[in-house]
């Protein structure tokens, strides 16, 4: 329910006691909080105004999705209501997690750093082996006798790519003469034209 100015007042009040052990949690006070009011990105606004302190998320939405998103956006602390039975009386029961859900939330949050990765776009070593099978190469769609001018109708693109020419090379092949007999359904090689 606070504005940035109110948060500043609260932080300054705490700091005057000598306490600098502060984590600022964004929270929408509504039980349960509708998704459209969760405003998880408000953590970034808070972080901008209070760069010396970590931020977190106090969640009143239903389920575990919002805490996972908050963790992905830098929440260092997640506060979530917990109950042994959501059917018990009380205002917080609907947005509280039962034991199994709490376990799932914690497990999900612990996955976040691995899921986020380095942020650098480059293939993983495990992908390179798969790429040889998943990527495609230029293939003869029919027998092409030596000396024949290669047309687009004589070529197709198929898997696997291993050892073959990439599909973008097809324009360089069309119009060239085959240097050898090329059998249908075999990869076109750079030495073939």
| Quaternary structure of the protein | single chain
What is the assigned CATH homologous superfamily of the largest domain? Aldolase class I
CATH topology of the largest domain: TIM Barrel
Q: What is the ordering of alpha helices and beta strands?
A: HEHHEHEHHEEH
Can you tell me the number of structural domains?
2
The separation of the N and C termini measures 72 Å
Poorly predicted ranges (pLDDT <50, ≥5 residues)?
none
List the helices and strands and how they pair.
Blueprint: H1 4-15, E1 24-27, H2 35-38, H3 42-49, E2 55-59, H4 65-72, E3 78-80, H5 99-116, H6 125-134, E4 137-140, E5 155-158, H7 170-173
Parallel strand pairs: 1-2, 2-3
Antiparallel strand pairs: 4-5
Tag the structure with descriptive keywords.
193 residues; alpha/beta; TIM Barrel; Type Iii Antifreeze Protein Isoform Hplc 12; three-stranded parallel β-sheet; two-stranded antiparallel ribbon; 7 helices
In short:
This protein has 193 residues and is an alpha/beta fold. It has helices at 4-15, 35-38, 42-49, 65-72, 99-116, 125-134, 170-173; strands at 24-27, 55-59, 78-80, 137-140, 155-158.
Account of the protein in words:
By secondary structure, the protein is an alpha/beta fold. It contains seven helices and five strands. The protein folds into two domains: 4-116, Aldolase class I (TIM Barrel); 125-192, Antifreeze-like/N-acetylneuraminic acid synthase C-terminal domain (Type Iii Antifreeze Protein Isoform Hplc 12). It has helices at residues 4-15, 35-38, 42-49, 65-72, 99-116, 125-134, 170-173, and strands spanning 24-27, 55-59, 78-80, 137-140, 155-158. The strands form two sheets. The protein has a three-stranded parallel sheet. It has a two-stranded antiparallel sheet with strand order 4-5. The mean pLDDT is 95.
């Amino acid at each position: 329910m606070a504005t940035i100015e109110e948060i500043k007042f609260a932080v300054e009040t705490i700091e005057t006691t000598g306490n600098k052990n502060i984590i600022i949690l964004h929270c929408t006070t509504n039980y349960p909080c509708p998704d459209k009011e969760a405003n998880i990105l408000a953590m970034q606004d808070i972080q901008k105004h209070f760069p010396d302190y970590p931020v977190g998320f106090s969640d009143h939405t239903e389920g575990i999705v919002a805490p996972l998103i908050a963790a992905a956006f830098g929440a260092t602390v997640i506060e979530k209501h917990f109950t042994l039975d959501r059917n018990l009386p009380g205002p917080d029961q609907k947005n509280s997690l039962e034991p199994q859900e709490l376990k799932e939330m914690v497990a999900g949050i612990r996955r976040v750093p691995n899921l986020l990765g380095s942020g650098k776009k480059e293939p993983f070593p495990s992908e390179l082996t798969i790429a040889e099978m998943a990527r495609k190469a230029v293939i003869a769609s029919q027998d092409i006798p030596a000396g024949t001018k290669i047309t687009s109708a004589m070529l197709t693109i198929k898997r696997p790519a291993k050892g073959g020419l990439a599909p973008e090379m097809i324009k360089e092949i069309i119009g060239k003469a085959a240097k050898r007999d090329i059998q249908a359904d075999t990869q076109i090689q750079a030495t073939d034209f």
